[in-house]
Predict the structure.
Amino acid sequence: MENLINRITLDSEICHGKPTIRGLRYPVENVLELMAAGMSIDELLADYPDLEREDFLACLAYASKLVQVKSIHSITQ
């Protein structure tokens, strides 16, 4: 999983410093939203030909690591 996470990059000059895939202008959050909405990796590959299957798996691995925090606090809206 660590090799996959290395595909996720942070650069203050790209997408306002949000995590992106391989320094490209594909924010991880957008990819995760598409996957959560039901798009399959095959559909995403067809829509984004410059990305690879491992890029989408890296987004999932990154999200998995983010939820492995010690505590979660409720944020009131």
